[in-house]
From TrEMBL:
It holds the Pfam family HTH_IclR. It comes from the Bacteria. SUPFAM superfamilies: GAF domain-like, Winged helix' DNA-binding domain. The keyword Transcription applies. Keywords: DNA-binding, Transcription, Transcription regulation. Residues 68-213 form the IclR-ED domain. One of its GO terms (biological process) is negative regulation of DNA-templated transcription. Residues 6-67 form the HTH iclR-type domain. The keyword Nucleotidyltransferase does not apply. This is Transcriptional regulator.
Length: 213
């Protein structure tokens, strides 16, 4: 902590982070131990966060993240989309295929930003807001691959015909972006993905990750 920071706010944010990292909630005692402060401080923090609907407590007294965080989260997608657009435009123009940023939304992959190339005669129509299961399509499979191993550098995933007949996809996960789980990819009308596309998608995913840090 420095003279310019608020200890109370810091503790409140740490409470939210701790609660976000558990599926079962935490008791006052557990939070007290993890924060290294007494129970009275935790009670006050929780009461304040509850007033803003950022925390809720169940009948057993365990604290959990509240629905108020959803109102804050609604602004995340536009910010992420804006940060990703330059890299997506460059990727779409370079490859001549539709580029997209996909984020996890529950058990689904959600396309939050899509850029189509300007110079091709035809390309896949892929729209922002498109959803599909995480285990289908390159975008979702790249995210699942990143979950299954600890990666410091992303690889890429290739698929064909899983979401649209005749279309192939390539995607690479976003690595090292706190609070954001997603991938960057392209989709094209082709029986296979050209060799250079995979490494180019990896570069674009790294550019987006850098923009979001």
């Amino acid at each position: 902590m420095t003279a310019e920071t608020s200890q109370t706010l810091d503790r409140g944010l740490r409470v939210l982070k701790l609660l976000a990292d558990t599926d079962h909630g935490l008791t006052v005692t557990e939070l007290s131990n993890k924060l290294g402060v007494n129970r009275t401080v935790v009670y006050r923090l929780l009461a304040t966060l509850e007033q803003h609907a950022l925390v809720r407590r169940d009948l057993g007294g365990r604290a959990r993240v509240g629905l108020g965080v959803l109102r804050l989260g609604r602004q995340v997608h536009p910010l992420v989309r804006e940060a990703a657009l330059p890299a997506l435009r460059s990727l779409a123009e370079d490859i001549g295929a539709t580029a997209h940023l996909t984020l996890v939304d529950g058990a689904e992959a959600l396309a939050v930003a899509v850029v189509e190339p300007t110079w091709t005669d035809y390309h896949v129509a892929y729209r922002a807001g498109f959803r599909h299961p995480l285990d289908r399509g390159a975008a979702g499979r790249a995210i699942l691959a990143a979950r299954q191993s600890v990666l410091t550098e992303p690889g890429y995933t290739l698929t064909h015909g899983e979401l649209e007949a005749g279309a192939s996809g390539a995607a690479a996960p976003l690595i090292g972006v706190t609070g954001v789980e997603g991938s960057v990819g392209v989709v094209m009308l082709s029986d296979s993905v050209p060799e250079r596309v995979g490494p180019r998608v990896v570069d674009a995913a790294r550019e987006v990750a850098d923009a979001l840090r």
